[in-house]
What does this fold into?
Amino acid sequence: MPFDAANLFPILPEIAILVTASVVLVLDLYLKEKDKDINHTLTLIGLLVAIGLTGAVGGGDARVVFDGNVVRDGLTDLLRGAILVVSLLAFVYARPWLKDRGLFVGEFYVLGLFAILGMLIMVSANSFLTIYLGLELQALSLYALVAFDRDSKKGAEAAMKYFVLGALGSGMLLYGVSMIYGATGSIEFGPVAQAVAEQGMDNKVLVFGVVFLVIGVGFKFGAVPFHMWVPDIYEGAPTPAVLLLGSAPKIAAFALAIRMLVDGLEAIQPDWQGMLLILAVLSMGLGNLVAIAQTNIKRMLAYSTISHVGFIFLGLLAGSAQGYASAMFYAIVYAVMSTGAFGILLILSRKGFDAENLDDLKGLNDRDSWYAAMMALVMFSMAGVPPTVGFMAKLLVLESVVRIDLVWLALVAVAFSIIGAFYYLRVVKVIYFDKPDPDMPVLTTSGGVRFAMSLNGLSLLALGLFPATLLSWCQSVFV
Amino acid sequence: MGFEKFLFYVFATITLVAAGMVITRRNPVHAVLYLVLAFISSAALWILLEAEFLGIVLVLVYVGAVMVLFLFVVMMLDVDIATLRAGFIRYLPIGALIAVVLALEIFLIVGPANFGLQQFPAPAPAAPGVSNTEELGLLLYTLYVYPFEIAAVILLVAIVAAIRLTLRRRSDTKYMDPAQQVRVKKGPDRIRIVKMPSERAAVPAVAASAAPQESTE
It folds into this structure.
């Protein structure tokens, strides 16, 4: 069959990222130590081009290309944009940290870009095969990034745990896919959805497969009881790697859940609703309760991730267009918040010192009041305090749960998020009311980092005050 | 029971036993060898399913290349089995429980009730002229060209990651630069004649005889 070059248009952003990664990979060989900044500039240009291309090829009706392997629809456009913007911020924050530690090498950018490529492939996947390959591409790059600091024993340990548990999660996912293939005879989401609608819940094989799919999704999200890897990896991995794996991959994981459970298996929604319900309650409970006991802020943020995943699941399990839209809104907002939080940790780190304990934030207000304000915004947003966007996100998710008459679930979620507010506000207290250590050096950052962080922090406030645009985009995806 | 069915059960049993041995052997080299056996018998199963090309590739790539590499690594590394097995008994009950539950579920679902010949009638055997390899190649480069390219990128990432994690330049390794070596020309580059005044031979002899005396004292 002849190949139509028009197939390539919808995947132009992916092509741009792949080309950038390859150029950086080769160019890095010829760059002298002092010219390594070119890698950074090229990466940022590549990401900007990809953002532009996402806008250029986006919009309009959904289009399936590459014989049903790729789809470009509203979900693809919005999530692509979010992933690219968040990753752009992450690369800007990471540069000074890498430079201080002699890790400012091309491979960081190459692996980071490949991880982003994997995420883009996931959000535009239209078959189980494509989405699985995208997931593996992303995961493999992230494993390597976690082990990036070769002299760090903790990093190596974290990478090992991540690798083994990640492989286990992928294995579960694949087993589930094989069952679904057995039950429906296809791996493309459209035909799978048709077959599922015909057979419904009578087919035990299908339900059996869904169990494994949900376990796989749970692993990739880090939902309780598949959360064991999250705290150790957040603590052990170098902070720039945590920044990359804790932000945009959550958006990609959301795409994974939506594509598989909603695009493919929406007909048996009552089945996976119950499973997600258990995961959601456990995640919100354990995440919020255990985070209180943490003194290491990276570990605390890891448990906070787990609790936020619970909230994203609440929106998903509602099974309504409004629920999916609110979960999507939450996932995007969460990625922006976590980028901001880890960005601040990178800013506070300097040569020979990594900010990872709560005490390291002491008196941040006296040292740099602007960054203190930004961190406070991020924390308020994570806690869900109005007028920040975190409040809007939580409210929307709760609304979708109340609409399907699960009021008790909404009450549980509110209770846990009140408990969770304690540890977020403790960070704010440490920043504003504790005195800094007198021997702390002056905080110096480049203009680019300051600009990016201001954008990041203020966007949380702006989105909270004017959520209509992003929200209407999210809603237009699921009509 | 046809001969084919008999062969299937033989190879399936070998695969299961070998896989069980992989995770229970104390000696890692034995475990790897059992894994090789498991791969070979699975390849035989695939060939029974008329997937000859895949079966041969499994033997060539996995057994021939990957597992041999594995064997090298296992033999070269000093793997301490005692620490590896430290928590074995402690975690056995929960591990066994999960394994039993999973196995039960799988037996209940993946059986003749759901995957019997009624649901999945046996496909007609392929005509003698059909080339497995050709069919696979056609599909791979047309319908599945996009996943195929992604798989290529994943392999590239594996190369980059492996090099990043293992390649380090040591300052204390001595090495020669072949590019410089071949540039050497006849003449002053190769030999330098140094003029020195002649010295008396007796002096080093005294020093040499003095040194062992010191060490014996």
About this structure: The CA atoms of residues 345 and 355 of chain A lie 6 Å apart. The mean pLDDT of chain A is 92.
